[in-house]
Each structure stands twice: as C-alpha cells, then as structure tokens.
C-alpha cells in the first residue's frame, strides 16, 4: 500500500473546509504510486484526489502548481490544482505539502491502441505548442548534465560489456549534443509513460503526475513517449503506434530540421536515462519505502534495440 502518511476522516474534513469543494463523504487510500501518498476524496459535490508529497525538493512545488495552472488555462487535459478561497493551492497537511486535484476519468492503457496513440500524440503536440510560452523555469533534472556524473555510480555493478556500453554512449551523447544547435525549448512532462495517462475507451481523460515536470528540450519529452508507448517487449519499435503518435503530434507541432537530425540520438539518450535511473534505485539509492523497483533490464533492451536497428523513419507531415 503506497499510503506512507495515514490520514483520518476528521483531518481531511477540516482540510476541505478551506476549499469550496463540498463536505467529506468518503476517503480511500490509493495503492498505486512509488513516491507520494495519494487519497481519493469524495465530497457531496465532486470527486477529488489528495496528494501528500513525501520526498523530493519541496521548494520546487510552486513550479508544478504554476505549470498545471498554465496548462489547465490552455484547456489541456491536465488536473489543474484546486485553489482555496484565498486563491492558494499549496498547503500543509500532517506535516507534508499537500495539493488537491479534480479526479479525472479513465484508466491507464496497458496496451494502447492506435486511436489512443493518436489522442496522446495530439495532446502532447498541443501541450508543447503552448508550453514554449510558459514563463516558469526548472532545469531538466535528468538530462545529459545528470547522466555525466551519475553513470559513474553504477558502473561497478555492471558487467564489463555493459560498463563499456554505458561509458561509450555517454561520451557519444556529450559529443553530439555538445556540438548540435539548440533544440526547441519549453515545459515538459518529463515522465509521460502510459501509467501517467487516463483513458475512457479511446478518449484521453487526462495526463497526470507532473512531478518530473521541467523546462528543456521538447524532443526529450517526445522520445520518452515513443520509447514507452511504441515499443514492443523485446525493445523494438512498433511502426503503427510510432507513426500514429508522431503524425498526430506533428499535426500540432511539426519537428524542426534540427530535431529530426537529433531524433535517433535522443531516443538512445532517453533509453539510457531510464536504464541508469532504475539501476540507481536498485543498487545505490533504494526507495525510502518498501516498494519493488522497476526492472532496469527493460531499458537496457530498448537501448540495444535502438543501437542495432536505429530509429524508424519519421512520418512526413502534410503541408
């Protein structure tokens, strides 16, 4: 059960009094999640989600509030946080920072179909189009600047072959991105896996969990999506899902020539990013709570597939 800070009905009922959201009817802990405590809150007026932040840099939480407010104002399918009667969203509950959100409809797609892929590509394209004007700033915490020092911490746990693979890849990324023209920048989700979306059938109900949100290369976000949404169990790319996402995305925001040139390398770098972060959780910095870490091997296989087979051709966009 990923409820690290238990709450009682009386605590939550008092908390709700600050908001124009109705009176508490029921409170249910949410078992999913690896970092924060989440409850489903039902009032006599609506369904809500209450999140307590257990770890991370709490001073960065205002950035996430501002980003979600901004995207919500631009009618993106994201849960804009509730603000209290004084216009404040971020509060403290049980000694932890707390945010209250509307509960969005739908379930995580385990095996997304092409209609769901198109819906996700369209929403991400819309998001990146408007996010280029978002005034907030938070450096990408998992980009090349993170890879350079952090990969040294896991090398001792790897086979000689994997040590060479990781060191060579990081050196290649440093040479490529260090000399490449700057890529288009904007606000990113930073972790847009399938389990951070909600679907009702083929309709995208919402994009959730923006706590890896940051500003940086838009292409970084898109590569994370393709490596999860359009990848088979053996690491190979699925052409139909790949093209469905990228056609819908580019109908909103066509990729630039610089982005097209960088695309194969970005797919490799974001695959290594997750291989490394999962290795760090397994060997170096295990979670504070008794949770099963994600398997690093999945993204090692994805990286090897990208190296062996390269990137698929990017679909062309009708002018």
Automatic annotation (TrEMBL):
<feature type="domain" description="Aminoglycoside phosphotransferase">
    <location>
        <begin position="27"/>
        <end position="255"/>
    </location>
</feature>
<dbReference type="Pfam" id="PF01636">
    <property type="entry name" value="APH"/>
</dbReference>
<dbReference type="InterPro" id="IPR002575">
    <property type="entry name" value="Aminoglycoside_PTrfase"/>
</dbReference>
<dbReference type="GO" id="GO:0005524">
    <property type="term" value="F:ATP binding"/>
</dbReference>
<keyword id="KW-0547">Nucleotide-binding</keyword>
<keyword id="KW-0067">ATP-binding</keyword>
<dbReference type="InterPro" id="IPR005280">
    <property type="entry name" value="Homoserine_kinase_II"/>
</dbReference>
<keyword id="KW-0808">Transferase</keyword>
<dbReference type="GO" id="GO:0004413">
    <property type="term" value="F:homoserine kinase activity"/>
</dbReference>
<keyword id="KW-0028">Amino-acid biosynthesis</keyword>
<keyword id="KW-0791">Threonine biosynthesis</keyword>
<dbReference type="InterPro" id="IPR011009">
    <property type="entry name" value="Kinase-like_dom_sf"/>
</dbReference>
<comment type="pathway">
    <text>Amino-acid biosynthesis; L-threonine biosynthesis; L-threonine from L-aspartate: step 4/5.</text>
</comment>
<keyword id="KW-0418">Kinase</keyword>
<protein>
    <recommendedName>
        <fullName>Homoserine kinase</fullName>
        <ecNumber>2.7.1.39</ecNumber>
    </recommendedName>
</protein>
<dbReference type="InterPro" id="IPR050249">
    <property type="entry name" value="Pseudomonas-type_ThrB"/>
</dbReference>
<dbReference type="GO" id="GO:0009088">
    <property type="term" value="P:threonine biosynthetic process"/>
</dbReference>
<comment type="similarity">
    <text>Belongs to the pseudomonas-type ThrB family.</text>
</comment>
